[in-house]
Every structure is written in structure tokens, then in C-alpha cells.
Amino acid sequence: MSSPSPCALSLGSNIEPVQHLSGAIQHLGLHSRFALTGLSKVWETEPWGGVPQDNFLNIVLVGFWQGEAKELLELCWELEREAKRIRQIKNGPRSLDVDVLLFGDLVSEDPELLLPHPGLTRRDFMLLPLLELWPQARHPATGILLEDLRKDLDAICILGQWNGDLYETT
After folding, report:
1. What pLDDT score was predicted for residue 152?
2. Is residue 29 included in any domain, yes or no?
């Protein structure tokens, strides 16, 4: 069996968020193939995408996964199913959203598992909590420190207001 891979997950919810985030964290913490090493503070963010709804609570977890990235993704989907996530409205309310942000140095263009997560460098609620836990994280495709990338993006966003998706452009 291969060595465990460092990984980062983003969890978000705006339907009974405390219950759903707590349940997912507990499930991950007890999973035999996941070793939780860090949990960010909780970030409250405004919804993105124009659908009227409550604010989100977001959190990032880092740890080690024993297995393949696709197997971790399947666990994320299982957590969403357990939280009874319904995908009816794009960018709509959700009980639980679990995304794999990083998986070791894996770069994947698989439509089911894009790695690193495409929102990682564009969404503060993903990037900032990750850097809180893993300040030396590097972008797997470029090798650039994510902290340096964040500073570059901050310089580009001249006194922009944080809205949970500061770097997303329309």
C-alpha cells in the first residue's frame, strides 16, 4: 500500500450548517483512511451566484488520505448524500458541499476531480483557511507558494471588498 497523501478539503453549508459541518467533520475524523491534522476556523461568507439564500459557513480540513484521490472524492460524495444534499439549483442553498482542494502534488484534469480545485486561488473561503493551516502549501501545477499567489492577487484587487469570492471574475 502506498504512503498516505497530504490533502485539503473544503466544507460549506447554509442549511443547518452547524449540524451538517459538525457531522461531516466527525465522520472524517473517525474514518480509518483519513488522518485529520488540522481544522481551520469557521468562515461566514455571502452566497455567490445570484441565488437569494442564507450566508454560508465554510471550513477547511487538512490531513492525510490512505488511498487514491478518486476514493477520497467518493467519500466526499458520501458525506453530501448523508447530509441529504439536493442539486436542484446551480449555486443554490446546500446542506453540505465537500470539495477536494489539494491531493499531494496531483494535478488532474478529470472533469469529476479537477486538481487543484479550480476555485482554490479565486475564492477566499478556500484559500485563506487553507493557508491558516498549511502556510507552505504549493500549487501542484506551478510549484508557487499559495501564500505568494495570494499576495499577488491581493495586489491586483485594489482595495476590493471581501465577499467570500474576491477573486472570481464575471
Report:
1. 65
2. yes
